[in-house]
Amino acid sequence: MTFLQDALAVILVLGGTFFMLVGSIGINRLPDFFTRAHASGKVDTLGILMFLTGLAVFEGFTLNAAKLLLIIVFVAFTSPVAAHALARRALLYGMKPWYGNPKNEG
Amino acid sequence: MQTFFITIALVLCIALLIPFYRVYKGPTVFDRLLGSAAVGAKILTLILLFGLMFDRLDMFIDISLGYAILNFVGVIAMAKYFRSSARATK
């Protein structure tokens, strides 16, 4: 039972770190602010949720796991809201979205 | 298990240092703000990982919850502050 719990925790933590790495690389490589906000709002949120779920599984049925579930719910609500608020403010500020590079089409 | 957690902490440090390039070289101020928000979200997970490594998860969970609330409130406040800012950076 303990081995199964540790294996599930290791899988979840590895997936969370992978998604956080992909989100961090996407913040640098994408060409526009709105695409970067997309990467930060979706991929990073999924990575953080998977990572914290893995820590809660490793902890077991204690009070700390309940607090970790509280943090998971809070992050799931607030991280996309922050990215959306930034993107909306940039759009109202007057930024033009990126419509693609015509030289790379075809 | 301890060596696994140390390895994960090293990978998370690498993933934390990557958005600092966007903070340094963002064309607009929103890029810098997004990079700093990403750095804060990764620091939260790193604090929890260190708390689990040192067997002090009771203390570090409260610290990380406060950090998450502070990060969210800071991003929302800056997004509302730049409503009337006039630094036109194309």
Supply database-style keywords.
heterodimer; A: 106 residues; mainly alpha; 81% helix; 0% strand; B: 90 residues; 4 helices; 80% helix; flat
Question: How are the SSEs placed, and which strands pair?
Answer:
The complex is a heterodimer of chains A (106) and B (90).
Chain A: H1 2-29, H2 33-59, H3 63-93
Chain B: H1 2-17, H2 19-24, H3 29-53, H4 57-81
Structure overview:
The complex is a heterodimer of chains A (106) and B (90). Chain A is mostly helical and 106 residues long. The longest helix of chain A has 31 residues. Chain A is elongated and about 55 Å long. Chain B is mainly alpha-helical and 90 residues long. The longest helix of chain B is centred in the middle third of the chain and has 25 residues. Chain B is flat. In chain B, 33% of the residues are buried. The chains are: A mainly alpha (106), B mainly alpha (90).
Q: What's the multimeric state?
A: heterodimer
Report the span from N to C terminus of chain B. 49 Å
Strand content of chain A: under 5%
Q: Can you count the helices of chain B?
A: 4
Radius of gyration of chain A: 18 Å
* Order of SSEs of chain B: HHHH
What portion of the residues of chain B fall into strands of 2 or more residues?
under 5%
Q: Largest interface by residue count?
A: A-B, 45 and 45 residues
Shape of chain A: elongated
- Topology order of chain A in helix (H) and strand (E) letters: HHH
Distance between the termini of chain A: 55 Å
Given the structure, what is the number of helices of chain A? 3
Residue windows where pLDDT falls under 50 for at least 5 positions of chain B = none
Contiguous runs where pLDDT drops below 50 for at least 5 residues of chain A? none
Largest sheet of chain A: none
Mean pLDDT of chain B: 88
Q: What is the 3D shape of chain B?
A: flat
Radius of gyration of chain B, CA atoms, in whole angstroms: 16 Å
Structural class of chain A: mainly alpha
